[in-house]
Amino acid sequence: MGQCVVTKIIEADKPPVVSLTYAKLNALILSKSEIARQIKHKLAQAEIVLLDEAHEVALPSAARVQAFYSVPIPEEYKMLTEISQRWVDFCNKNLELLTILKAEGDAGYVGKHLSKTIHIEDELGFKRLSAAWNELFSLAQRREELGLRDDEILAIRDTVSIMGGYWAAVSYIRENEGAEGRTYISGNVGAFHRCLRDFLTEYVPYADHIYSSATLIESSPEFFEGLSGKFVRDAVFPDLRNTNARMSIYPDRWRLNSRNFARSLDRIVDRLVDICKEEAAGAYVLAPNSRKANIIQRKLHEVLGPAAPKVDFYRSDMTMGVERDDRICIAIGLAEVPSNAYDHLAWGRDTETRWLHSQSLRAQSVQAASWQAWSRVKDPEGEVESRIYCIGIRSEQVADVVAWGSGRRLELLEIRENELPDGYTARTPKFKVQVEKPIEPPIIFSEERTATHRDRHSVREYIVGIESSKDIIALKRGKVDIENILDRAIECQGWGESDQNAYTNSYRQNGQFLPNYVNVWHGDTDQLALFLGIYFVNRSDCYAKQYRDTQREKWSYHKVVGSLDDINLDAINRHVRAQLLPQGYRFCIAVYQISRDDRVSWICYDLDNHDNSNPGVQEDVKELLAVLDSYSIPYLLEASGSEDSYHVWVFLVPTRTYNAFKFSRQIAAEAGIKCEIWPKQQSINSDKAEFGNPVKLPLCIHNKTGRRSGFLDHQTFEPLEYVPLPGLVRLFEVPEPQRKPVQNPVRAPMPDGGSAPRRYGFHPCLQHLIDARVQLRGGAGYEARTAIAIDAYNSGLSKEAAVDLFKHQDNFKPDYTMHQIESIYSKGLKPFKCSTLLDKCGDLVGCYCKTCPRSKYIGFGSKASA
After folding, report:
1. What angle, 0 to 180 degrees and rounded to 10, lies between the N-to-C axes of helices 265-278 and 290-304?
2. 478: left (phi over 0), alpha (psi -120 to 50) or beta
3. Does one domain contain both 216 and 160?
């Protein structure tokens, strides 16, 4: 030990930092030598103990040797020879258990807890163990002379570790892609934890203990508190340089596993070659394990020759704590861990509980190793973009791999049963990662899809996860221009605490009290304004104010350039108080949904029964809510103030407008409803759509009816006094289709009079609506009117002729109609596609499709895509 660099700690005079590996610390605590005592005395002066890569503390690598495997040891190494004989005797003594475990595993290992703990009698004392380590050091130095391989030296080391403990775990492990099962004996990892606990509680009990890792895992509740012997507080160190925000991850459409690797090899290599050709700068390639890395490497060399990139593997020396210059990573599957690898660490009252705990530890280990490796390509300065191309990794797997922060845990969703080719039934648990205080994840793109019809997609494809309302300030900070509102919210963290008792006695959901809510009946108006500001204001530099249009005899809105993010929330407060204006009506505002950087933070569905156009509107609302509930999507249901009129609000972690547009239409398609949906645009990055469409802010007086809008119970449709604060949906990034530039259409010359429009090529279904004088009411009617006006423009009709198309409508007003026609003509819009017409006003035009000459372009039997 005198030659060890650790002894330099004694010589150092008040060193500011002392760095030790966990293995050296473990050996130091076990040692009884005078030098070890002096080093421990020096370490006891530490004020801070930083345990880096603490996930390795929670899930340490245990010494593991196949049962009965023994390496011949030269006779001069007497202590190693004695331990080797003890090892063989130990295996023979437990032969019956080993045989039973092997038979049980061979009969079907998936879905079973295949591990037993056994006591090691007559354990080695410290002196004999110390002598064995000294002999092993000498043996390792002479291994070439004695003809011993490195793996044999490591096996001897692990055998000594196992026999030096108090107990061992016998486990069944499936290897070689599940083709062969073996029984292994694992060492006492509890000895490592005991040494660490002794160091923290006896030598440095008054120092600050900091457990640090980018992938922090606790193998059991309060695990780190048990090691430190005192309270350990969770904290998240912020990503100060926004390195995650500069990383984009592209999932695949299929999942790699041990059973499909061989038949998927060509597919993997083809995709690798394509990516390497696209990324001229080169890429860091990761394989699930070393064996598969070698197979892929050989195949790549056959295709690319010397230009083939080097293939690394998860948990190699280069995948943890090592910065790389590469900014492109190609991840082939996730890190691999044998199915029963953590059986020896699992705990529980019965075998089922222990099996689920083992599988949970295994899943967390896979996710930690995968994220540690992917993170190597991030730019530590946060300046250069990094990209992860996934092969055989699906989007939901990516979402779990990148979800880290304090309070991380895995929740069991289901246990799937699958019939294996050998006739056995495999049980596989499916977990979902939950994080109490998450770190902002990288940008995750959705899986590439080729199908265009929505019935071939699912709402689930768009969802990364659901974030808690408790984190709304952190989730919106820096992404939404409401910094003053967020600052106010920090000062008022205890919304409604004075009414907590009344709330908990009156409102329950799923048998649990909701901790965060707002009282919309008797609450303070400042708190209500703050609630509306945080949840509903996404663009703060302007808003729309309601006014009475006396010329057209209707209520309208006009845009006001003014901030909603003022420190007093003046406009929102006036809205909530329903301030009476000199004109005799109430102050009421609408908010613009899309921010200047083309992001949204909510979706709104507007379902109504204006002019008795949709008598079954409540059933439509229930269908919509049923879809939201089926995907556990939080929402608020609002009675908007008119008779039988409802708004359904879904709140988002700020995301691109296009993502929200596609997500919202998929929800409506699965619900089978037609209604107005915000966002109405896919983007506002154009001169023709600078602001988007506003939506009336809730909790106001509806000037037309005199009713105050309010939130409803989603089951009874009764008004809610206490409104729970909903969580936020985090969406995947949806790639926008590459669009070819479209030439402006060649238009026919404008006729002087209003000649019949039929000759100008209207959509046949729209022509039917005109000829049959169908009354165009509600949301679908509005969309049909817009489509008719656009067809009129593209057919070359004069504005006057276009106005005449609507003169048979019951609510026809010439001046207002001309105003709308002029607005549409000024934008130069292209005619709607048939699929778009079906999406926007299918209830009106769908009945004409089967007789339409254009029907060959429409896929019947499925809902049309946007």
Report:
1. 60
2. left
3. no
In which domain, by residue range, is 798 found?
A: 757-857
Q: Which two tokens stand for residue 88?
A: 């063989």
pTM score, two decimals?
Answer: 0.76
* Interval 511-563: pLDDT, tens: 333 347 889 888 788 889 999 999 999 999 999 999 988 877 788 889 999 99
579's tokens: 């301030």
Q: How far is CA 100 from CA 96, 107, 186, 513, in A?
A: 6, 11, 17, 48
Contacts 24+ apart (CB under 8 A), 831-834: 831/763, 831/787, 831/790, 831/791, 831/794, 832/763, 832/787, 832/790, 834/763, 834/858, 834/864
Q: Are residues 48 and 92 in the same domain?
A: no
Which residue, among 466, 418, 408, 478, has the nearest Cα to 439 in the 3D structure? 408
Residues 498, 432 share a domain = no
The chain-wide mean pLDDT, for the chain, equals 84
**Six token digits for residue 578:** 């329903």
**Contact residues for 221 (Cβ-Cβ < 8 A; gap 6+):** none
C-alpha 279: how far from chain center? 26
**Cα separation of 39 and 25, whole Å?**
10
Residue 300 is part of a domain; what is its CATH number? 3.40.50
- In whole angstroms, what is the distance from residue 845 CA to residue 866 CA? 16
Q: State the 10-residue block means of pLDDT for the chain, 866 residues long.
A: 67 82 81 84 90 88 87 92 93 91 76 73 73 86 90 90 81 69 79 84 92 89 90 84 92 92 94 89 91 95 91 85 85 89 80 88 95 93 94 96 92 84 75 90 87 72 92 88 87 49 36 60 88 94 90 85 89 94 92 93 93 86 96 96 92 96 95 92 69 91 90 94 94 78 44 42 88 84 89 89 90 86 85 82 79 58 30
Q: Is residue 739 part of a domain?
A: no
Q: Is residue 358 part of a domain?
A: yes
In a shared domain, residues 78 and 22 = no
- Whole-angstrom distance, CA of residue 617 vs CA of residue 673: 10
Count of structural domains within the chain: 5
Query: Is residue 217 assigned to a domain?
Result: yes
Q: Which of 731, 747, 772 is the last residue of a domain?
A: 731
pLDDT tens-digit readout, 758-807: 345 789 999 989 988 888 887 778 888 999 999 999 888 889 989 999 99
Q: Does residue 355 sit in the same domain as residue 312?
A: yes
Does some domain include residue 12? yes
